[in-house]
Amino acid sequence: MAFGAEELRVLRRALALALHPGPVSAEDVKDCHRLAESLDEALCEGARLRAFLVADLARYRAALPGAVAGYLALLEEALGAGYRPVPDDLAALRALRGNAVAAALLGRCQDLAERDVRARLAPGAVPASRARLTALPGGVAKESEKKPKEKPAERPAPRPATPEPTLPKRPIPTPGEVFPRRRPASPPSGPPRQLVAG
User: Fold this and answer.
1) What are the tens digits of pLDDT across the range 49-108?
2) 3: left (phi over 0), alpha (psi -120 to 50) or beta
3) Of 77, 60, 75, 70, which is closest to residue 106 (Cα–Cα)?
4) Angle, helices 87-95/26-62, rounded to nearest 10 degrees
């Protein structure tokens, strides 16, 4: 992110005021607010551009091996913008190892991935729940280091269930009431007719 001459002047003034508090003019306050808004806008725009870049990278990766040149160029640009390679990138680069650019990018991406793993496994990065585990060889902790067991938090007493409103009971209808019997059809009146074939 590059600052213009006017933005640098405002930034210097803001830093001076932060280090040596004193009376601030209304113009200085307006300038600082404008600079903060410009920075916020630039950060949002940068995040949008990174999102587009990562989406393009995924599209090119899905089109491999036909899109080798475009994929490698986009990956290089994304790495320059702070992108961290994902396992799919490493797998794609391994498949393209015959390409000199892909081989160089594979080495760079593997270094970044190893750094990320080391950073996650660094002593300061160990979760607090696991940081206090102390044990002797064989898995037996020293008695002096054992802390008294804390009582588990008492659960609040269950609330009495609120009685559901009772509905008036209706008698269950019988099948005869639900499906009444059909009356037999009455025989046709008059002499029976005969059908003539033909």
Assistant:
1) 888 888 888 888 888 888 888 888 888 888 888 888 888 888 888 888 888 888 888 889
2) beta
3) 75
4) 50
pLDDT at 133: 45
Amino acid at 102: A
Contacts of 22 (CB under 8 A, 6+ apart): none
Contacts of residue 112, defined as CB under 8 A and 6 or more positions apart, other chains included, come to 79, 84, 85
In whole angstroms, give the CA distance from residue 115 to residue 138.
32
Is the distance from CB of 35 to CB of 9 less than 8 angstroms? no
Give the position of tokens 């009455």.
186
**Residue 95 CB contacts under 8 Å (≥ 6 apart), including other chains:** 64, 65
Q: 113 and 90 in contact (C-beta within 8 Å)?
A: yes
